[in-house]
Amino acid sequence: MSNINYQIHQDEQNKPWILLIHGLFGSLDNLAALRRGLTDDYKVLSIDLPDHGNSLHTDEFSFANYALLVSELINELNIEILHIVGHSLGGKIAMQLALSQPDLIDRLIILDIAPVSYTPRHQLVFEGLEQVPLATITRRQDADHYLQEFIKEVGTRQFLLKSLNQDDNGWHWQFNLALLKRDYAKLSAGLDSKSPFIKPTLFIKGELSDYLMPDHKDRVMQLFPNSQLKMLANTGHWLHAEKPALCITTIKRFLA
């Protein structure tokens, strides 16, 4: 049985498969807008990354291990080949899977991330998350109060609070906070491969985001020589949530 939590959305068996992979601190619900827009034409597989959502917590982060766990799920479901859409950290995992097991993938779509190293940019998020006294809060609004000191953007706090759950043992973050903080440098690192992924690849950039920049082009083309870039105007890093219809249309045109 897979260590990856997943959902399958389909109404016909003969549709092609498409896998959706969310980003850091997220869960499979983050790409729900894309899922709803793609189920007419595809069998959609949505997953929680390891150390996120309801998937297993691991002992150490690595792109290779995450990609291996995702590939094991694909094989367990007897999916021979599929398209993949990955956002942010999910995009890096998708790229790693494409580089290590290209035969599994037909076409690759990467949302606002490059296969490069990034300077730390989540320090305040980690500080805020660690300041929430999970043993004493009684509601999500209490946690939001503590996060406000470190995270000013309401949307970011709301996104994080989606992963704050309560059970018989009290409140807890669904993501593996301790591991993600400890191994943050590893998940911020770039990707490497002896062989490029030569199948069609689409990078979609949010115009207002600084995650996918012109100086990343050389590295992108080294690893993904059969790639193209599309930009969504007036969108940031969360382009799939800001303009879901346009993002879905862009993906469908590429896959058509």
Automatic annotation (TrEMBL):
Domain of life: Bacteria
Keywords per UniProt: Hydrolase
GO terms, molecular function: hydrolase activity
Signal peptide range: none
Domain AB hydrolase-1: 16-244
Name listed for the protein in its UniProt record: Esterase
Species of the source: Paraglaciecola hydrolytica
